[in-house]
Amino acid sequence: MWRVWKRNSAGDPEVTPEPAAAVTDEATPSPEGVVPEAPGTEVADGQTAAWAGLIPDTFTVRLPGPRRPDRATVRTVLRAAGDLAVLSPRGMTLPLPLVPAVAVLWAAVVGLLLAAVLAYAAGVGGATPLIWLTAHHAPITTDVGGVTLLPLGLLVICVPPLRRAGRFLSAQVDPAGRQVTGVLTAAVIGYAAVGGLVAVLTAAALPSTPVLSAVIWTALAAVVAGGWGVARQRLGRIPVPPIAAALAVAVGIPLAVGALLTAGVLLSGLGDVLAAQSALAQTGQDHLGLTLLQVGYLPNLVVWGAAFAVGTGFTLGAEQRLSPFASGDAVLPDVPALAALPPAAPNATALLPIVVALAGALAAVVFARRVPEPRLRRRISRALILALCTGVIWWVLVALAGGSLGGGRLEYVGPAAGTVLLATVLTAAGTLLWAVLPTLASDARPVAIDLRQRASTAVTAAKEATESRRTADRSG
Predict the structure, then answer these.
(1) List of E strands, 238-354
(2) Could you give the dihedral angle defined by the CA atoms of residues 240, 244, 250 and 256, in that order, rounded to the nearest 10 degrees?
(3) At the N or C end, where does the chain have fewer CB atoms within 10 A?
(4) Which domain does 10 fall in, by range?
């Protein structure tokens, strides 16, 4: 900032706040024995004359102005804001009381934004809170009954934000401190409170979600997905445990078969699916919304296909089942994708349960290669544990992929009863077969050697008898 000093008509200097082109910072010496006075004060004539000859009519001084922020500071602030916007685990450290609040608000806001994008794309923007709660698998109450058959594809709305929030919490809290449990518990309770608040705000009209169910399911989602993020941040990328690899094989192969069956049925019946959708949707936005709904239900259909491979199949209402061993004309729900279902299953699908048993055997192979065990008793116990763990995973999948679409004939739609039990039995058959096979082979080896020696001895005796007979014939 520049200020110009000029001499007024009385001979005293005055300040004019206007910019000047030149800068003069040289100090002007004062006459000996003369003390300069402030502008506007009276001084003696001798002093005034002395100053009049020394002070120019115009001189310029530079005063300090407002400082611009340093580039490094601006860069640091922007980086901190960006880390906070994406909830980066490597961002700045917040005060401990703010950590669970920031994590909960970020996960809830991001989830609601994703739900809003999906809702407005489908033309039902007012259903954003309901879609967000449905993504946590909270049941819906309608005027025709409760709906618990919810699309598993909506988990992408809540699981990634909660996993990110879990990593953020784990990075902000000292692992050796005692406050870890308290911070995580506060975050779960806060997220459940947000779920309950959203349910209360949307409880005035149907469809809606019961408040207690919303609190329970949001808390469960926070524990599972957030705990996944905490474990990922604490442990990093660790080798897959042998039991996890075996379970992935035992469950993944039937699910892969179910995905192939689902894709094959949808492609073969694509014309029926399009005709059913055209009958239900009138506008382009209706088509988009119905398509998004069916895409959300695709993971459910994959689990249904896996249940079909197990042998129990799936039900489409009261006493209407489709499996490799049972079929019939069913009254289908108004979902275009279900119009592709054939009236009867091909006879070759009766061999699909063998695939589930082979998946169990292959899982036992994977486990045995990573952790060899020569003793038969431990191999059998390990095979049974593997089968039981597989049954638990099947129970979770069946519980999430099936449910009610209201009252009446659609009281339950999804994998048929007995799917969990039969899948566990088939997996146990495969794992036990592989557990017993090395022992059978080792026990059978001496028997095989003895049989081989007896056969060789018999062949040698027969040859000798034949040669002796020929010799006798020649001599006779």
Answers:
(1) 314-315, 321-322
(2) -60
(3) C
(4) 2-62
- Cα angle for residues 27, 32, 33 (degrees, 5° grid): 115
**Three-state secondary structure call for residue 144:** coil
Amino acid code (one letter) for 46: G
Same domain membership, residue 162 and residue 44: no
Is residue 306 domain-shared with residue 399, that is, in the same domain? Answer: yes
Answer yes or no: do 223 and 361 share one domain: no
What's the whole-model pTM score?
0.76
**Distance in angstroms (rounded) separating the CA atoms of residues 35 and 273:** 101
∠ CA 257-153-266, nearest 5°, is 45
Same domain, 215 and 116: yes
pLDDT at position 59, please? 54
pLDDT tens-digit readout, 219-276? 999 999 999 998 888 887 778 889 999 999 999 999 999 999 999 999 999 998 999 8
Residue 269, amino acid? G
- pLDDT-derived band at 66, boundaries 50, 70, 90: low
> How many contiguous H segments (helices) and E segments (strands) does the chain have?
13, 8
